Amino acid sequence: MSQKVPSIISSIVSCKCPRCREGKVFPHSAFNLFGFSKTNDHCPNCGLKFEHETGFFWGAMYISYAFGTIIMIVFGVLAINLDWSFAKIAAVLVPTMLLITPFSYRYSRILLLYLLSPNRHFDKKYV
Ligand SMILES: [Zn+2]
Prior knowledge:
Helix 2 (about 60-80) packs antiparallel against helix 3 (about 85-115). This protein has helices at about 10-15, 60-80, 85-115. It is elongated. It has one domain. The two termini are about 15 Å apart. Helix content is about 45%, strand content about 0%. Bound molecules: zinc ion. Zinc ion (ZN) binds next to loops.
């Protein structure tokens, strides 16, 4: 009997644990305004401690900064090509940045866990 193992891409997109790809990293939905930033201390499935040292998730701030920078560059190029006024740019960009904040927050932590964390690799024995 073989159990289908989730792909790394689907695990990243669905914010699952990097070791078992089953447990949720975040207990609440990204659309939960007051709970989107809560991160589980341990994986509810395999027990992996997500923040393995104090301040570990500070590194996610740099990834989040990169997300914001990419969006600003895309908007800048669009604004220049579409000849938008500053007011129009601000009217579009500010709500967009506010709306993506929960996703930027979460995916920067997920990418940090998956890509930049040693000893956080997938292990079949936890599936
Ligand atoms: Zn896990």
